[in-house]
Amino acid sequence: MAFNYLTPMLEVNDMDETIAFYEQNLDFKCHQRIENEWALLLKDDVALMFSGRFYKEQYPNTYMTGSLYIYADDVDVLWQILKDKVKICYPIESFKYGMREFAIYDCNGYRIQFGQELESN
Prior knowledge:
Blueprint: E1 9-11, H1 15-26, E2 29-34, E3 38-43, E4 46-51, E5 68-71, H2 75-82, E6 87-94, E7 99-105, E8 111-117
Parallel strand pairs: 1-4, 5-8
Antiparallel strand pairs: 2-3, 3-4, 6-7, 7-8
């Protein structure tokens, strides 16, 4: 039995705002949508699904203890595009574990990291 791919499904309070954030800032396209219940956004080989809130009364805030990590082919260019447009979690940096990366927050407070492997000498 093989796993084919992973597509995160994140709950959001405002579907219109979320779709606009990803389309305007990250160049995703809304591929499918069912009103404010569900949406599928695509960009290159990355897919994200968003849904309306299931237990909003019990858990009023969206949250995720981890992050979404997106590998990019030119993280420095992406940093220049995004650094003044979105809320930054941490700025671009090269790390000793071999990645150059930065992180932002989306309009729901979800952390998205963008990384690129450093060339080895």
